[in-house]
Amino acid sequence: MSHVIAAISTGTQISAIGILRLTGDGCAEVAGKVFSLNSGAPLSQAPNRKLMLGQLHDRHGRVIDVCMAVYTRAPHSYTGEDTVEIQCHGSPAVLSAGLEALYLAGAKPAKRGEFTKRAFMNGQLALTQAEAVIDLIEAETADAAANAVGQVGGILQKKLSPIYEDLVDLCSHFHAVLDYPDEDIEDFGLERYEASLRADAKALYALGQTYHQGLILKNGVSAAIVGKPNVGKSSLLNAIAGYDRVIVTEVAGTTRDTVEETVMLGPTRLRLMDTAGIRDTEDRIEAMGVKRSKAAVENADLVLFVCDGSRPLTHEDQAVIDVCADAPNAIALINKSDLGSKVTPADLPFMTVIPVCAKTGEGLQQLSDAVEVMFADGTPCDGSILTNPRQYDAIRRAYDAMLRALQGLKLGLTPDAVLTDVEEAMEAMGEVTGATVREDITTRIFERFCVGK
Length: 453
Hints:
The protein is an alpha/beta fold. It has helices at 27-32, 92-104, 114-121, 127-138, 142-152, 155-179, 194-208, 211-219, 233-241, 284-299, 315-323, 364-375, 389-411, 415-433, 439-446; strands spanning 5-8, 15-23, 35-37, 52-57, 63-72, 83-90, 108-109, 221-226, 259-265, 268-274, 302-308, 330-335, 353-355. Among the domains are: 5-110, Probable tRNA modification gtpase trme, domain 1 (Gyrase A, domain 2), CATH 3.30.1360.120; 217-375, P-loop containing nucleotide triphosphate hydrolases (Rossmann fold), CATH 3.40.50.300. The protein is built from 15 helices and 13 strands. A hairpin with a 5-residue loop joins strand 4 and strand 5 (63-72). The model is unreliable at 178-185 and 247-257 (pLDDT under 50).
């Protein structure tokens, strides 16, 4: 028996619709003390999964909304328990008064993520699916949402389950032979499992390799805009952002620190960093900004080198180019194309060089296309891309343990020694699926959620 919990599931801002959610044994009886059907029947007798019109009452019994409620019976609900959702008009005052009345009627306040935690505990969701729910809520691009909803649907679980089952079969066969020597059980031999172990290790490796793309999918591409002072770096950021995010003047050295703005450039989410102009300077504050600019280049996924195309390149431009030399991805932008160009693509040691004009927006579409090609690796966003650092760490440890098992097999170690590594791999994989995860970890996972989800 689970106690009834209640929460507002739609936030506290004014909106068209607001939802009060309850779950737990007897939630329909609790909700029925606050919500009365227009038909006069008790809410607990309402048809399953059918929206019913009625009235919501506050603690004093006053009608505060005419709205709808839906009763979903266990086990075919999100949590696997009886659930009720009261769909009100989205007045924060109505929702707050309705929630207070539900508490007085016997419901307890829901904790952060408690609805989804109950879904996990009741077997409605694997842990990979439950964690993907918060990723879906926080998704800021259509691709991120598509990947998250794929994981909510169980794609990641389906990739991991066959691997886990292979390891279970191996261990159970060994222990069956060991514990029941008199039974007619096929002799255990590690060699017969070598091919499946290699295939499973390869599958884990391939999944782990998606994590870098997953970080970009989830967090966006960190892009540092660099160049010597007064080449139009801040103007370029403003042009991409679509508004004046950064102060722009004709005075060199206006930007003294890194300024960050998250923008959508075509289908790609960029975390743009406008940096201080890189040059030698006696100004102590500007020098600190230059140091931060160089650090931004070292940590960025993408570097956008900007030069003033209306003037010949200088030794200061070359110094910035040298700073960009080790960047994993870089694009050169020849700015101020409206003033004519004294710089050609052949003058710059970059694979991708694009003439742009921050003032008119010329070249921004080409920049968008280039960034998309650079960071879209073709992996489908169907839930098969790993985005969760906790899951990645566990899968990496499982992969390492399987490599040790294969090495032990090659060296001719005894089965019990090899299976120690296999069981370690199983333990790590269980942390991903939820089979072996500790309670303190699950608590921390669901604390990421908002109340009401």
